[in-house]
Amino acid sequence: MTINSLAGTAAPLAPVTDAHALTGKRRIAFASFVDENYLPGFLVLLRSLALSNPGVCEDFVVLYDDLRPGSIAQIRALHPRIVLRRVDADRYDSYKKGDQDNYLVRKAYFILDVFRIREYDTVITLDTDMVVLGDLSELLQLREGLAAVPQFFYGQHKLNSGLLVIQREYLSDAFCARLDKCGRSGDYELDKHDQGILNAVLDGDFVRLDARYNFVKRRLSGDLPVPDDTAILHFTGRHKPWQGGETGYSRAEDRWREFELSDAEFQSAYLESAGALHHDLIVHYGTPHVTRTGDVEAARKVAAAHIASGDYQDAVDILSGVRIPLDEAWPHEVLGHALMSVSRYEEAKTQLLLAAAAPNRAATAYARLAQMAWVHGEHTEALTHATAGMSVDPTHRPSRLWAQRAAAVPAQELGAPEDQLSHVAFYMDRQGNAGDKLLPESVRSAFGPDTTSRRWHSVHAHRLFDEAALQRVNRRRGLVIGGGGLFIPDTMPNGNSAWQWNVPDELLKRIDVPIAVFAVGFNAFDGQSYRANRFRDSLRLLVEQSSFFGLRNHGSIEKVRAMVPAQLHDKIRFQPCPTTVARQLVPGWQDPAKRDDTILINAAYDRAGLRFGHDYGYFLAQMAQAVRDLGKLAEVQCVAHSLDDEKIVFDLRREHGISMPVIPMYDFENKEILDLYARTKLVIGMRGHAGMIPFGVGTPIISLISHPKMAYFLRDIERPEWGVSVHDRHLAARLVERSTELLADHDRTVADVHGRQQELWKVTEANAADLRVILGG
C-alpha cells in the first residue's frame, strides 16, 4: 500500500480549511442604510462608535443605492472594515405604500436587506440618525434571538427597529420569505414600514433590550439632559441635528455635536482615547495622523499595533519615518522590537540601547537585547543583558527567562557526527508549555528508541542559522525539522524565514544532507494570517529542498499546498504528530491496569482575543455549568500545560464560585506527562496537545475548539463529534452529553481510540520505511 493511499484511509473527509467553519467563532457586523441626505449623520455615527467603543472593530456593512465615490471615500476614511452592499431598489415594488421618494420609506424597506446578509452570525443595525455614547459590549455578547428596544410610545409588544441585534437564524431565506409575504400582503402599518413588517411577522416575539440602547430623542422633550447611562441616542423624527435640529432638544444635540469633527480632530481624539484601543483602528487613524503631524507618540502606538498583528516591516516603516528624540525611550524600544523581528539586528541593538537608558523601559529593552544575543549564540552577552534587566526590575519575567536560557549548559554530544541526525525544533524551557516540551523527544522516538545526544544534534529553531550551524548540520547524515506548529508567524518572529526557524534562504540552499520535514503543523489562528511574501518564498524553498515533507494534519496540507506552486503539491504528504501514536513509540509501553476516576480539563489563553472573540464571558459561564455537571461523573481537575492555563481556575472561582484542583503539568518531565494522561478517564482540552497526547496514550478526548488545528486532527481520525466549539450555543450541555456517552462504556471508547490510532500508526510506519531509505538507516 502506498503512503498516499494509507493517508487517504486515515482521513476520508475532505479537509475544511475555512477557519470560521472549523472554530465556530462568531462573525459580527454592524449595518446601516446610507444615502447622500443622511451621510452627515452616518459619519458622526462612525466617529461616535469608535470613540465610545475604542476597542471594538467589526465589519460595518453599508447598504446603499446612490452614494457618490467621494462619499464612499469619506466613509472608508472613518472605518477600516467597510463592506459596501448595493441594494436592489426594485425589490420592494410589489409592496410599496405611500411616498416612493421619501427617505424614511426607502430606508424602511432597504434595511430589510439586512436579513439577506449571510456572511455573519450576528448583525447589529444602527440608524444613521443615531449617536453612540456608551459601551456596546452587551450587544456584542448577545447570542440568541432578535433583540431590540420596545417602542416607548406604542407598547411593549412592538419594537423600535433603529437598533436590532439579529442572530443567524433570522439571517435566512426562510425569515426573508416571511418578511416578503407580509410586505406583499400589505398587512402592516403604513407609517413605519420596517417596524410594521417586522412587528407583524414577529408579533412581539423578540428579546427586550434596555431603553438605553435606543434612547429616542422624544423622551428628552423640554430640553432634558441625556441620561448618563445612555449607550445609543436616537434622533427620531424629521428634524436632524445636521439639518438645523429642533427646538427643545439642544442638550441632546450638544451630545451629537461632540462627534461632528474633522478627520484630523477625530484621528487625534481616537489616539488619545483611554483604555484598550483596537489595533486595526490605531493603524487606520494613526497612519494619516503620523504622516500629517510627525507625532512620535502616535507613531509608537501605530508601530505597536503593527507588531501585535504581525506586520513587523510596517512597524519599522512608520517609526523610521519620524524623528525620535534621544530621550524618548519607548519609541526606541518599539522600533528596536520591530527591527529585530525583521532580522535587522545591529540597528535593533542601537535602538534598544537607547531605550535602556530610561528606567521605565530598561528592563524590557535589556530582555530584548538578551534575546538577540541568545539568537546569535552569544551566551555571555545574553546573560549580561538579562542580569541588567533583573537589576532594574527583579520581577521582570522575560529577563529571568533569558538569564536561564543564557546560563543553560548545552547537553554534551556523545556520538560521532556521521552517526547523528540534526534536529531543528523548538526546545521548550523549564516551566514552558508541556506539549512543546514533549514534542522534540516524540519526534526523535519516531526514528528509533535512542533520543539522546548520542544520535541527535540539537538545532534550536529560534537561533539564527549561521555558517557555523550550517557546517555542523552538513557533517551529520541528515536534518529533521519537526517539533510543533513551526509554521506560525509570531511566536519568535524573524525576517529571514517569517516562520519559527530563523534560517536565511542562502544557507537553506547550501544544506547538502537530506532534509526531512516531519509532522510540522500550520498553526495560524482564526483571524491570523501570513501577510508577507517572505514566508511564502521560504516555504517554497523548503519544500523544494526537502527529501521528505510531512505535515501533521490534512488541514495543514491544504493550507501549505495553497501557498506553493502546483508542481510541488505531490511532495507534501501526511505524517501524524508522533504524540498521537505514543503507545507505539515508547519502549515497553504498558496500558494502565486501572485508571483514576478523573476528568481533566485544559483551557488555553495565549492569543485569547483570537480564541474567544466577544464570547469569553459566555464560555466561562458554560464551563462553570459543565464542571458542576461533570462532577457527577468523576472528579474534575484542571491540567495546566503552561502557567497561563491556570486562569480558568481563578476566573471560575471569582465569577462563579467553582473550585478545581490544578495539576501543574508545566513542571512535569516527559514521562510524567504521558503517565498522567494515560491514567485519567477523559481529557477535555483546548490546546492541540491536550488532545493529541492523551489520544496517543489511549485516553478518550473531547476537544474545546478555539483553533482550526483541533478540528483538523479530529477530521483526520474521523471523529469530528469529539470536538465542541468554545462558541457553541449549548457548550455545557454538549460537553456533558458527550462525556457521558464516552464514559458509559469506557472500555469500548478506549478500544475506539486504539483503533483510530492504529490508522495513524500505519501511515507513520509506511513513512518510516521511506525515511530509512532517505536518511540511510
What's the gyration radius in Å?
A: 29 Å
- State the low-pLDDT regions, or none: 1-12
* Helical run tally: 32
- Helix content bin: 40-55%
End-to-end Cα distance:
22 Å
Strand residue content: 5-15%
Number of strands: 22
Major beta sheet, specifics? 7 strands, mixed
Mean pLDDT level: 91
The gist of it:
This protein has 32 helices and 22 strands. By secondary structure, it is α/β, with parallel strands linked by helices.
What is the fold's blueprint, element by element?
Layout lengths: L2 H8 L8 H5 L4 E6 L5 H14 L6 E6 L4 H9 L4 E5 L16 H8 L11 E5 L3 E3 L4 H5 L4 E6 L3 E13 L5 H13 L7 H10 L4 E2 L6 E2 L15 E3 L15 H8 L5 H9 L7 H15 L2 H13 L3 H9 L8 H13 L3 H11 L3 H17 L3 H14 L4 H11 L13 E5 L8 H12 L10 E5 L6 H8 L4 E3 L23 H5 L5 E6 L12 H13 L2 E4 L2 H8 L10 E3 L7 H4 L12 E5 L5 H5 L3 H15 L4 E6 L6 H10 L5 E3 L5 H10 L2 E4 L3 H8 L4 E5 L2 H9 L6 E3 L5 H14 L1 H30 L2
Parallel strand pairs: 1-2, 1-4, 2-3, 6-8, 9-10, 11-12, 11-13, 13-14, 14-15, 15-16, 17-18, 17-20, 18-19, 20-21, 21-22
Antiparallel strand pairs: 4-7, 5-10, 6-7
Helix pairs in contact: 1-32, 7-8, 10-11, 11-12, 12-13, 12-14, 13-14, 14-15, 14-16, 15-16, 16-17, 16-18, 17-18, 26-27, 26-31
